[in-house]
Amino acid sequence: MIRSMRLRNFRGFEDIELSNMCPITLISGKNNVGKSAILEAVFLFFDHKAPDSFEKINIFRGNYILNHSSILWELIFYQMDINREIQIEMNFDDTLAILKYARDSSFVPIYNASMPKEIMNDIVTSAKSKYTLKFQYARGDYTEEGHFIAGQTGIFQNMTTNKDNQVELMPYVQFINNRRMFDVAIIDDFGIIEMQQKKQDVIDIMQMIDKSIQDITTISTNGQASLYVKTNDHLLPLNLMGDGTSKLLCLIVSIISHPNSIFLIDEIEGGFHYAMYPKLWEIIATIARKYACQIIATTHSYECIVGAIDGIESADRKHEFCYFRLNKKGTQNRTYRYSDELLRIAIAEDMEVR
Question: What residues are paired with 156 via a beta bridge?
């Protein structure tokens, strides 16, 4: 579990730290203070080995223009200054891990005879005419080092480790927001649940939000599989269900099929009526504990914050919950941490906590 994190020169943060994080951590603050950026930093940290990691965090924001370094990764540098090294630090239960990104204009790719000549030429030319993005990762005595190259034919990445190419396995991390609620992976995850004979568990949980849900199934049409929900004796594709139903179903399916993982939920309140917030949080807190998953979520809704307090208490997890309020004054970022008890006092006193 992530116990604390620190970001340097990432997005709008020159330097910010979240300490004493909990299994359930909720983050809020005004618009453009960096709530989503914190989730993106966590995702990037755990997904940094993937060649398309930068593409993913751009897609999270609805940006599908992915063929240039200025779009792919320069936007994540503080004030878009590619010469300032990014550091993403994560403190786990046992160790500190650090991921760094920095511009590297001196890297020369090693020629790979097994790669098609036109692609290899693209890699070498792009590295010489532009620059590469170097990354370094360290956790204990394990280290990785590599480069990203933005070529005309795609994004290329190389990586070496100090453990004879025995790559450290990272926890599964899932990012869910109102733009990206479900994809092909959810079909595979649901298949895992059916093979484990846990589909009824999913249905029972979803009925706590919508009693009309009778069944969930996978249907293939024209060679393409999709999730369908049976409600009031009618089968509907998942993408035609309400945003709240779709979001919760994807989250529940992901948690059950990926225990011991980390789930990042941006604007968790999206798609739900405010009266449902306590039940929503009770469901999430209960299932996250059952499958040993950490939840890090953002909101800008006061009602959602209040709902979290009530719902998490109903799940008997109030001592495993904390809340961070982000604030920005000029270029300075600050975080204010609230325990469950302190947050209750602040709300009772009608203090501004968003």
Answer: 149
